[in-house]
Amino acid sequence: MVKELESYLINVVPILRGCIAELTDNEDDPYQRSIMTVHANSEARDYVKSEKHAGNDCPVELNGFQLPPMKLDDLPEGTQTEALKEKIAKSVDEYIGFHNHSPQVFFCPDVGIITARCHVPHADKGQVLNNKVALVTGSAGAIGAGICEALLEKGCKVVATDLAGEKLEGLVGELKKRYSGEIEGIPMDVTSERSVKQAFKEVVWKWGGVDIVIINAGIAMVSSLVEMDFEAFRELEKVNVEGALLVLSEAGRYLIRQGLGGDIVLISTKNVLAPGAQFGAYSATKAAAHQLCRIASLEFAPEKIRVNMVAPDAIFAHGERKSGLWEKIGPDRMKKRGLDEKGLEEYYQSRNLLQAKITANHVANAVLFFVTRQTPTTGATLPVDGGLPDAAPR
Predict the structure, then answer these.
(1) Are residues 246 and 273 in the same domain?
(2) Which of 169, 353, 370, 389 is most buried per CB count within 10 Å?
(3) How confident is the model at residue 216, as a pLDDT?
């Protein structure tokens, strides 16, 4: 993608998506969003520039779009968000004033054609996240997979991200069988600023913007403080802290540019409040990520962006999909307690007040509580641990 086109898409498309959003009567979630598709190819650009615009010659299928396109040209040079917002909002308002309806098709001489579709959610299916776009990090693990499934079930468009490889490909292939057209996989390394930025760009290219970001990627290690390998600690810090910060800051940039509010949820851990011996690196780095998100809840609140945390206890698998974290640290935990895998799971279940087995579905339900906006809440931590007194305050 040429640099000029990339800059246009990053800056203009999310702003445009925000400007055409319809107001609702729901104070907690006041905007009905559209899913946007960018047709940035030579055929679309040539058609727009030709000024002939014969319907049967259009390279983009426009059936269902009854109103004429809105032309997006003469936009301010540079990437100043406020100047772009002002210009685009004025153009959209003028279009609505003339046609009594928001534009659905946009002709952009330097890009091509952009279309926007607003699907009304089906109440009987409970698709309360219809027209929203979510990006989930660490999707290929047990918790990430459970969250992706839960979001899809609620009508959300989901971008599953993780390191490139069979695990991500397998998850996306499996989910596409049930949710064709609703799930996309994008390889992303959360420790690479370039990789994170590229993933968000691809989300804009695919669906026009992002509304929900789930920060779930994380790794662990077992070591006492006196024996800890500093290079191994730094690897955890890169993923658990720097990775969380890179995703958090990039999410904030896009959500602010879009101007529709949004939701960010960190999958934290009970170890933030109740750390365990031999687990210092994980506990400390996750606590740092947790604190970054608490600060984000303060900084992003004026933009109506909510930032919350979910703090689960041990989760070993989601169906056949094993937890990468527990594949790594489970053997040490089993050895120290003289237990097999089943016995270790039973141990963790027996230690909480409700004697409950904590699952990825439980974590996903906690995420849904926040992103479906059941209460006006930000900066909160929701424990998913069956009741662990040591993890108080609750």
Answers:
(1) yes
(2) 370
(3) 98
Query: Which strands sit side by side in the sheet containing 70-71, from one edge to the other?
Result: 35-39, 112-117, 105-108, 70-71
Q: Are strands 112-117 and 105-108 parallel, antiparallel or unpaired?
A: antiparallel
Nearest to 382 by CA among 221, 267, 248: 267
Residue type for position 241: V
Among residues of the chain, what percentage have pLDDT more than 70? Answer: 92
Q: How would DSSP label each residue in 244-263?
A: HHHHHHHHHHHHHHHTS-EE
Q: Which residue has the higher pLDDT, 53 or 19?
A: 19
| 103 and 128 housed in the same domain | no
The two tokens of residue 166 are 């069979």
Q: Point out the domain boundary residue: 66, 98, 117.
A: 117
One domain for residues 183 and 45: no
pLDDT of 5 reads 73
Q: Which of 140, 161, 134 is nearest to 318 (CA)?
A: 140
Q: Are residues 107 and 182 in the same domain?
A: no
Are residues 194 and 173 both part of a single domain?
yes
Q: Are residues 213 and 303 in the same domain?
A: yes
Query: In the predicted model, what is the mean pLDDT of the chain?
Result: 90
| Rounded (5°) CA angle 323-326-328 | 115
Environment class of 94 (CB within 10 Å of its CB; exposed 0-12, middle 13-18, buried 19+): exposed
| pLDDT digit string, tens, across residues 326-377 | 666 667 666 677 777 787 788 889 999 999 999 999 999 999 999 999 999 9
Instruction: Compute the distance between CA of residue 302 and CA of residue 311 in angstroms, rounded to an integer.
Output: 25
Can you give the residue range of the structural domain that contains 60? 3-117
- The amino acid at 182: E
| 170-179 confidence digits (pLDDT tens) | 999 999 999 9
Q: What pairs with residue 183 in β-bridges? A: 158
